[in-house]
Write a structure and sequence with these properties.
This protein has about 160 residues and is an alpha+beta fold. The chain contains three helices and five strands. The structure holds zinc ion (ZN). The site of zinc ion has 5 residues, from helix 2.
Length: about 160
């Protein structure tokens, strides 16, 4: 197992659309294992493959109810709308309010290559929507107003300067 480097904003790969996984092979299982280890190491509740430099549709998450790994996840149903603060391992030190669906129905493939389908709500639904956004090249910064986005980017640049001195 290995802890992977997390790509941070404004890395180009975070803006790209990830590709579907055709076969769940040894390489995919290894990536999922390394991503899980990285997610726990960084104390994140979710991680998407593009965040570790892999343009594949694979996400890992754990909100304290056990590790889940989902391949080619898709939201096939949704209900309600709710706003809450979110952070992102790729945008360290920033939290913004993001509107999400309250309840979602998700399908995908597990590590055994089996199709799974389930309904989830609240925090878990939020985390899955956040990670699927990563697979489509979207960040929480794309969910806020332009003015707020500019303020955050200015703050990130300042943080970057102070840590690279
Ligand atoms: Zn994120």
């Amino acid at each position: 197992m290995a802890i992977l480097d997390i790509k941070t904003f404004p890395s180009e790969i975070l803006k790209q659309k990830a590709n579907p996984i055709k076969y769940v092979d040894k390489e995919i299982r290894k990536l999922a294992e390394n991503m899980s280890e990285t997610m726990y190491d960084k104390k994140g509740v979710g991680l998407a493959a593009p965040q570790v430099g892999n343009l594949l549709r694979l996400i890992t998450y754990d909100i304290g109810e056990g590790l889940c790994i989902l391949i080619n996840p898709e939201i096939i149903g949704c209900e309600g709308r709710i706003k809450a603060e979110e952070g992102c391992l790729s945008i360290p030190g920033i939290r913004v309010e993001v509107p999400r669906y309250e309840i979602i129905r998700v399908t995908g493939i597990n590590l055994k290559g089996e199709r799974v389908s389930f309904e989830t709500k609240d925090l878990l639904a939020r985390v899955i929507q956040h990670e699927i956004d990563h697979l489509n090249g979207n960040l929480i910064l794309d969910k806020v107003s332009r003015l707020k986005r500019e303020l955050i980017i200015r703050k990130l640049k300042k943080n970057y300067k102070s840590t690279s001195k």
